Amino acid sequence: MSELEKFLRLEEQLKPYIKMMSQAADTIIVQEVSKYPIFVVHQQEVNIGIPLLDKETNKAQWSINASTLEEFVSKQIVFQEKVDEFRQNYKSQEQYLCVFALSELGAQFIYIPRD
Q1: How far apart are CA 28 and CA 85, in angstroms?
Q2: What is the pLDDT of residue 69?
Q3: Residue 101: exposed, middle, or buried by beta-carbon count in 10 A (0-12, 13-18, 19+)?
């Protein structure tokens, strides 16, 4: 399976949770927690973000945690010297959700459409 096929499969698996993730992103932004919400999508235990969906409890393929750029910097997932570059690459919050996917693809940032 190509990386594109894996990405498309992940995007399809996350579709049922787009509304929930969009609402969480809006809350993070409106409450001025951060201008840069990040959703950690994982299948193992992680120590970052606030759990939104537990795969075991919900019989889902993925667990989803809500986090922010600021937490990623504090945990040194994004290095301080890369923050400006990250912000420049961050896609429109109105149209996309920023996802940090921990999967067979490794760990990477991807953007999935809100609709």
Answers
A1: 21
A2: 98
A3: buried
DSSP codes of every residue in the chain? --HHHHHHHHHHHHGGGHHHHHHHHHHHHHTTS-S-EEEEEESS---SSEEEE-HHHHT-S-EEEEEEHHHHHHTTSS-GGGHHHHHHHPPPTTTEEEEEEEETTEEEEEEEE--
Cα-trace Rg, the chain: 13
Pairing assessment for the beta strands 50-53 and 96-103 based on DSSP bridges:
unpaired
CA–CA separation, 94 vs 6, rounded Å?
Answer: 25
Report pLDDT digits (tens) over 20-56.
999 999 999 999 999 999 999 998 889 999 999 998 8
User: Is the whole model's pTM more than 0.70, yes or no?
Assistant: yes
pLDDT in tens, 46-83: 999 999 999 888 888 899 999 999 999 999 999 999 99
Locate tokens 């010297």: which residue?
Answer: 81
